[in-house]
Design goal:
By secondary structure, this protein is mostly helical. Helix content is 62%, strand content 6%. The protein has one domain: Four Helix Bundle (Hemerythrin (Met), subunit A), CATH 1.20.120. It has 6 helices and 2 strands, in the order ααααββαα. A two-stranded antiparallel ribbon has the order 1-2. Strand 1 and strand 2 form a beta hairpin. It is globular. The model has no long low-confidence stretch (mean pLDDT 95).
């Protein structure tokens, strides 16, 4: 059993969990007078969408029986985000703990939200999910900046780089 690809995806997921924690903290740090802004609510809802999309793909991959009720939730509270993320992270950690390269190469079929049938490899979908999260975290950062709040720094390079100490 080889795990080169599987290890790469597990590492990316560790980064993503850290980035999600930082995004939730930045959303929670928004001043009370700005939390009624529609832009703030959109940012909170986008984070909930990231979680819902990950649940949908676990369902499509056959790793859970529970499909998300709403892929684009609205009116989500910032206080609920930690629980949403922790539950999703736990389910994904369980799936990824069993991931090997044979699973990443597995081709599976699924139905889109519009009812069409498609086929992809697990590797394709895992790659899509990380890109999807990056994309929406960028939108969340832009929304927070637009209400003059500071977004979390979630660039992969900040998470992965190692400082070089000189002597």
């Amino acid at each position: 059993m080889t795990t080169h690809n599987a290890d790469r995806f597990r590492r990316l997921f560790e980064y993503e969990k850290d980035a999600h924690t930082k995004v939730i903290a930045s959303l929670g740090a928004v001043s009370a007078n700005k939390r009624s802004s529609p832009l703030y609510q959109k940012a909170v809802d986008l984070f909930a969408h990231i979680c819902a999309a990950r649940w949908l793909w676990l369902y499509r991959l056959g790793a859970t029986d529970a499909s998300p009720r709403d892929l684009f939730p609205q009116g989500v509270t910032v206080d609920s985000l930690t629980g949403l993320a922790e539950e999703m992270h736990s389910a994904w950690s369980d799936y990824l703990s069993r991931l090997d390269d044979a699973e990443t190469a597995r081709v599976f079929e699924y139905r889109s939200l519009e009812g069409e049938q498609f086929r992809n490899s697990v590797e394709d979908i895992l790659t899509q999910l990380f890109g999807h999260s990056l994309y929406h975290r960028g939108q969340i950062a832009m929304l927070l900046r637009s209400i003059e709040e500071e977004p979390a720094v979630t660039d992969f390079v900040f998470w992965s780089r190692e400082a070089i100490t000189t002597q």
